[in-house]
Amino acid sequence: MEKILPKARNGLTGYILGNLEECGKSPVKSLGGFVAAWVFFFLIWQVLPNPEGLNDNGMAVLAIVVWASIMWVSEAMPVGITGISVPTLLILTEGIPYVKGKPPMDIVFSGFTKHVVWLCLFAFFVGAIMQLIRLDRRIALGILDKIKASTVGRVIWGMFFVNIILAFLIPAANARAATLLPVVKGITNLMGDTPREREARKAIVIQSLVYGTMICGVFIMTAHLPNMIMLGIFDANGYSNLGYLDWMLLQFPYLGMFVLTQWWVKYHFKTKGVSVGGGHEAIHKEYKELGPMGKAEWVLLGIFVLVAFLFMTGKGSPIMELHNHQLGVIGLIGILFLFIPGITPCSWKAIQQRTIWGTFLLLGGAITMTSAMTISGLADFLAHHIHTFVLDMNWWQAVLALMVGTHIIRIGMLSNVAAIAMLAPVIFAMAPKLGVHPVAFTLLVCDTDTFAYLLPTQITAAVIASGSDEFSVADYAKSGWVCILIAIAYGLLVMAPWYAFLGIPVWDPTAPWPF
Question: Between 20 and 30 A from 401 (CA), which of 106, 265, 315, 389?
Answer without folding.
Answer: 265
